[in-house]
Every structure is written in structure tokens, then in C-alpha cells.
């Protein structure tokens, strides 16, 4: 009843307000009629909807009854049939910050999902990595307590171990153990059969021993046997071997040439001309040769010819000029006769570069760490060919061996090329080289040989009978590596 009374009073207040509306705000008749028609139409539609809802609810009679029985309003609280209070979900306002945070989380979940790519598409490239649209946040990462203490402890232990290893290596280097071990590793192994076979008599004793073994040396001789009976060719005489001349020594003693000064050379040239002139004068005096024509020039024309030049000066001048041209032509012909042809000049150059190696061949062995630069390889090959030197270049890792054979002058020029002209790696300026002489040449025209293994490089030198060249270069490389490790 109280609620109905309140509604009636509110309706009365609204009616009073409507009556107090000024006349200028009232609608005219046609407009009011339109509004009334719209209101009636809306009321009709609302009634129809209400009827439909009531008809649908009528088909389910127990739906509202159960709700009314279970949920009741008691003193402003909602309770169920048993009298317990029911907590309904209440909508509360949410802060914008929380809403944005929630949206970010949802967006992150969407971005983390792997994008579905069509790998069969012609525009698909698996080399391109997909980048997220939003950069990932990098939060603070705090280290666990004691982490850096453990790292420092490991560093100290490592430094102590390295120090101990350095001391051991230094001691091994002083005693030569380390170098000997390294050289033993690279020494080629011999066949086991050769090592196990021990001869009964060594080859240097087989020519003087009567017995076939050392054990039978005393068995076949009685107590009175002498050394002469045990050994063949052993006497009390001393044999002095004949001294032989080394093949590289020259047969004739070398005489140092005498170099004259410029003034002395001029003096000798004048004396030679004077002797030739005297010899020619003697032949003319004895009538063996006709006297030469006077050497007339334009400058001494009047002094030599005298009256003849005065009588017909044009004729005399022509005669003098013809004589001068004749002398010039004879001079040029003499120079042309002395001039060497193209083939002669080439032979002279080759003869100057080619040196006599019959008395011995000078050999140089160089070890280069890095020879991959094609420009340096070309310089080595071109200079060796220009100097008419033979040899070979074997390339294996950091042991590149250059062997060249030739005369002493060519070796001097090639050594300057290898040690000064070619700029090798500045960090590794040291290059090993060995120089010596051999009886004959072992290689042909210089060639480059790339060897992937150490055994192949050794076999290539063994084929030419100079395996010791490789042993020398490789052992130097191993010793150098050992010294670098100990430093």
C-alpha cells in the first residue's frame, strides 16, 4: 500500500508540472497528433511482446515458481528457501590502468602464437626470421649470491694450472726433452722387420773376419792362434789414404783482375793508337802500302791543299765533302759490323746469366709460413726462370719449402728477392734458409706442388733423392712451434 501511495503522489506532481508548462512550449495540434500516434504504436508493440513472453512462460509453468520459492527478499537481503543469504555478482567500476594491462596481456598472448605461414607460396623465404611486432621487455636479472666468487675461484685455479704447465715446459726445454719428443713424433717409422733383423757380422767387419759370426771368431782358433789368422789383411803397416782434390775446387789458380783508373785507360789507349800509326808508317816507308790520302776537312782546307783550293774552290769543296762522307760511311759500317745481332745479344745475356755448374751446384732451401698469395708465388717462379735456376716449391700448411739450384750469383739475387724484396707477413718476419753445394742438380724447371699430407710431401722429396731437405725444414718448424708454446 505504501508503494502504491508513493506512486500516486509522484503522478500528481508530474501532472502539476505539465499544467505549469508555458503556452509557448506547447505543441500544435498536428504535431501532438503525430506524437500520440507514435506512442500508441509503441504501446501496441510492447503489449504484443509482453503477450509473447507470457505465452512462452505459460508453456513452462514451473520456471518462475522455483525461482520465487528459492530466492526471496527478506529485510533487504536475498535468501534462498533454506534461509541462507545468496551472494549475487555485482558489477564494480574498473580502473583504466587495469583495463590497459589486461589488454596488453591479451595482445602478448596473440603475438606469442606462431604465425601460420604457407611454405608452398613462391614468396616464402625460410632464411628470413620473423620479428615480433613489439619489442620484448628486458626486466632486471639479479645474480645469485656467490656467483662471481665461484668465477674468480675458477680463474685463479686456471692461472695456477697454466703457471705450473709453463714451469714444466721450461724445465723440459732446458733439458731438451720436449724438443726431442716433438722430433721423435715426426721421424718416419721404419719397418719392424728391418729393426728386428740383426746381422751376424756387420758389413764393416765382414771383409776382414774369417769366421761367419762373432761367436765363431774364437772357436776356430787354437791357443796359439794369432790375430793374423783371425783377421784377413790386418798387418803392422799403416795405410795412408791418398788425398783427393774436391770436385768443386778449380783446376787453375784464380788471378785477381787489375782494375785501372780512368787516366790509366786513356794512356793505354793513346799508346795503342801510336803503335798502330808507327806500324802503318813503316809499311808506307817500305812501299808495302800506298800512302793514305790527306785527311782534309773544311777547317784545314786552305792549309792542306793550298794553291789548288784557290784555283777552283767549288771543285775542292765538293772533293772535301765527298771525302768526309766517305770517312763517315766507313765509320758507320765498322760500328755496324761490330754490333751484335738480336740472336747474339740474346745468347750473350743467357751466357751472362747462366753460370758454370760443372764444378758444383749451389742450393738454397727456404721455409715460408704462408705462400697463398698468388702475387708472391708469381715473383718466385718468374725470378727463378729469369735466372735460369732449377728447383721446386712444396706447399703444406705452414711449412712451405722453396728449393732453388743455380750458381752463386743467381743465388745471391734470389736470396735478396726472398729476404728483402718480397714483403712477407709483418707479424712473422723470420724466414729460415739453408745454403750449401751439391755435385749435380736434382730438379728440373721450378714447379709448385701442393701436398695435403706430410707423408705426401716427404715422398715427393724422396722421389728426387733429397728427403733431408724436408726433414730439415719440418724439424725447424716443429722446434719453432715448441718454443712458441713454451713462451
Automatic annotation (TrEMBL):
In terms of CDD domains, this protein maps to: Prp3_C
For region Disordered, the annotated ranges are 328-356
Q: Where in the cell is it found?
A: Nucleus
Question: Start and end of every Pre-mRNA-splicing factor domain?
Answer: 122-341
Coiled-coil stretches = 147-174
Q: Where is the composition biased (Basic and acidic residues)?
A: 330-346
Keyword set for this entry? Coiled coil, mRNA processing, mRNA splicing, Nucleus
Instruction: List the GO terms this entry assigns under cellular component, sorted alphabetically.
Output: U4/U6 x U5 tri-snRNP complex
Q: Which GO terms describe its biological process?
A: mRNA splicing, via spliceosome
The record's principal subcellular location, in a coarse class, is nucleus
The record's InterPro entries line, in alphabetical order, gives: Pre-mRNA_splic_Prp3_dom, Prp3, Prp3_C
Q: Where is the Small nuclear ribonucleoprotein Prp3 C-terminal domain?
A: 364-473
Q: What is this protein's record name?
A: Uncharacterized protein
Q: Which organism is it from?
A: Branchiostoma floridae
What is this organism's lineage?
Eukaryota, Metazoa, Chordata, Cephalochordata, Leptocardii
